[in-house]
Design brief:
The complex is a heterodimer of chains A (292) and B (112).
Chain A: E1 2-7, H1 15-26, E2 30-34, H2 42-46, E3 49-64, H3 74-78, E4 84-87, E5 90-93, H4 103-107, E6 113-127, E7 133-139, H5 147-164, E8 168-172, H6 179-185, E9 190-196, H7 199-215, E10 218-224, H8 230-242, E11 246-251, H9 256-262, H10 273-291
Parallel strand pairs in A: 1-8, 1-9, 2-7, 2-8, 9-10, 10-11
Antiparallel strand pairs in A: 3-6, 4-5, 6-7
Helix pairs in contact in A: 1-10, 5-6, 7-8
Chain B: E1 2-7, E2 25-30, E3 35-40, H1 42-45, H2 51-61, E4 66-69, H3 74-82, E5 86-89, H4 96-104
Parallel strand pairs in B: 1-4, 4-5
Antiparallel strand pairs in B: 1-2, 2-3
Helix pairs in contact in B: 2-3
Classes of the chains: A alpha/beta (292), B alpha/beta (112).
């Protein structure tokens, strides 16, 4: 079993578009997992039939027991997130603002504040229109992705891969380099970086490479929108060379990315011969890499 | 001296876990008293964020000086470094007993 994670550092580089297309080409050869749960959107392209749906619990939220509350207001004063306010004469927690830090519950002289585990969303196993297994999650309003949820989605994908004897797991990783991104790298065999030829693309690429080097994982890179800023593209190539990261493809800016999305199809299905070829080449390249 | 393994369960026959912060638990061997202890990690595993640093704290609180684990994340590694805990890579899917033997033979790679 080989686990390939697609990461970008910066958002909006085309990471998900490329991964969705790779998953479409791979078909039954790969299980696809969407770990970019803050903005889970691959299911829009995959038209999945849900097989299992499981509630996901994570993080805590404060609840005030009105019968114990003496109205001292300590909780409201100490809250850094302005989450406790007086509503109709009683102190009430605004669940959207509450970060679950528990400070109020420690400061309450009456022990009137209970920290409760929250249901934050669901994770799903499904069969996509490309006949492969697709694991993804959806969050409730104002909930955020976490390392815990990423590790859950990944472990579900792994056990499916074992059961169904599927060789590849393709993971759409979260943007950034924080907890969820690190969680998506853990245990992976290869990181496919999708960056773009802009200064911010390069800046975030450097930070991402720092993490990849820390975990000592093989990586390769795709420069998307490679003709946007030739200077930035050149600098990205230099950074990759210094870090022994192979650039496997450069994709010039094309409207096809947006057009494909608007038509709810992956790049593999979209009528752009040149781009189809490039995506096919990337998948072949990735498989060869893993065999070596 | 105490040596801890990021483990999938309690006992020398258990396998290494492939994560550190969200490992199932830590199997700790005290080389002086020749006693073992299992530290359940489900509390840390359950955290949305910061599982790595919390697991590192648990390891330091136990007085562990050697940690054998899958690659430890950058922040947790910093915590362990300050507490002078040495970190070694385990063996993929390795049984703890084998991994310990490998450690004794200086066969484990140190994490930078």
């Amino acid at each position: 079993m080989k686990e390939i994670v697609v990461l970008s550092g910066k958002g909006g580089t085309g990471k998900t578009s490329i991964l969705a297309a790779l998953g479409a080409i791979a078909g039954k050869e790969a299980i696809v997992a969407d770990c970019d749960v803050d903005a889970a959107n691959m299911h829009l392209l995959y038209n999945p039939k849900i097989e299992t749906s499981v509630e996901f619990m994570s993080g805590k939220v404060a609840t005030i027991d009105e019968s114990k509350c003496n109205g001292c207001g300590n909780c409201s004063n100490v809250c850094r997130f302005d989450a406790i306010k007086i509503v109709d004469g009683v102190y009430t927690v605004d669940e959207v603002n509450c970060e679950g830090c528990s400070l109020c519950s420690h400061m309450c002289p009456e022990n009137a504040i209970i920290m409760e585990t929250q249901k934050i969303g669901h994770w799903f196993t499904s069969k996509s229109k490309f006949k492969n297994w697709f694991v993804y999650a959806k969050l409730g309003i104002a909930q955020e992705n976490s390392g815990k949820l990423v590790s859950k989605v990944k472990s579900v994908a792994r056990s499916l891969a074992k059961e169904e004897k599927v060789e590849y797991i393709l993971i759409d990783g979260p943007p950034g380099i924080g907890c969820p991104a690190i969680s998506s790298i853990t245990g992976a065999n290869h990181v496919l970086i999708v960056t773009e030829a802009t200064n911010s693309g390069k800046h975030d690429l450097v930070r991402l490479i720092g993490i990849i080097n820390h975990f000592n994982i093989h990586a390769s890179c795709i420069i998307n929108k490679a003709d946007l800023n030739e200077e930035a593209a050149k600098e990205i190539e230099e950074v990759c060379t210094q870090n022994k990261i192979n650039i496997i493809e450069k994709i010039p800016f094309t409207q096809s990315f947006t057009n494909a999305l608007e038509n709810k199809v992956t790049l593999a299905e979209y009528d752009d011969y040149e781009l189809n070829n490039k995506i096919n080449k990337i998948w072949t390249e990735l498989k060869n890499k893993e065999e070596k | 001296m105490k040596i801890a393994f990021a483990s999938t369960g309690d006992g020398w026959n258990e396998k290494m876990d492939d994560r550190f912060g969200r490992a199932k638990g830590f199997f700790i061997y005290d080389t002086e008293n020749e006693t073992t202890k299992y530290l359940d990690n489900s509390n840390n595993n359950d955290m949305s964020h910061g599982a790595g640093t919390s697991a590192a704290k648990s390891i330091v609180d136990e007085g562990v000086k050697i940690l054998v684990s899958a690659k430890v994340g950058p922040k947790a590694a910093e915590v362990l470094k300050v507490a002078s805990v040495k970190i070694y890579n385990g063996l993929d899917n390795g049984i703890l007993e084998e991994v310990y033997r490998e450690y004794q033979n200086n066969g484990l790679e140190m994490q930078v």
